[in-house]
Specification:
The protein is mainly beta. The protein has a single domain, classed as Porin. Helices cover 13% and strands 55% of the residues.
């Protein structure tokens, strides 16, 4: 598992190293930023998307490249009838998932000659899901029905941020896993 993690993160680290070696007249720091968002996520456990709470903290690794440890959370509850719904065979399914990982982000502001109020990026995230799913006591059906998704995931992101001022911005992050909209709090700009 450690080897797989290194193989998947290696291209992002190489990109960050190459970019840091390039000469540039202006250097914008993207790190030291707390991103808090709400969104929709899908990791294959239920077969549909759910509301997600997300947070990450970016730190600069190289010019235009950041890494951000993150945590996301969602919880789901639904009722099901086993057999005939008129026989009062109603059971609840509960699931809570915590996603932990690392997101590598490359900012294209210099390449796009972007207005200082805007940031544009591509990113990749790698992590694992801690899932707790359970049925009510007495449920006679297949209790492993929703446990088919792998706990490891790799997502791709595209996004942008609009800066209200040098301390606060709003972002939109579209992803193959969890897409979010939220606030970016810049702690040292």
């Amino acid at each position: 598992m450690k080897t797989l993690t290194l193989i998947l993160l290696l291209p992002l680290l190489i990109l960050g190293t190459i970019v840091s070696a390039q000469d540039s007249h202006s250097i914008e720091n993207y790190g030291n930023t707390l991103n808090l968002g709400l969104g929709i996520g899908y990791y294959g456990y239920l077969g549909h998307s759910l509301p997600v709470i997300h947070g990450d903290f970016e730190f600069d690794v190289a010019k235009s490249f950041t890494l951000a440890p993150f945590v996301s959370f969602y919880s789901y509850r639904n009722d099901y009838y086993y057999g005939n719904p008129h026989d009062n065979n109603r059971y609840y399914y509960h699931e809570t998932v915590i996603l932990l990982g690392l997101k590598g982000t490359y900012y294209f502001d210099d390449l796009l000659n972007a207005n200082p109020k805007w940031d544009f990026y591509l990113a990749g995230s790698l992590g694992f899901a801690i899932s707790n799913s359970r049925w009510d006591d007495g449920y006679p059906g297949d209790k492993d029905y929703y446990n088919s998704a792998s706990p490891l995931f790799l997502n791709l992101h595209i996004g942008s941020e609009y800066h209200f001022n040098n301390k606060l911005g709003a972002f939109l992050d579209l992803s193959t896993g969890v897409s979010t909209i939220g606030l970016a709090i810049h702690l040292s700009k």
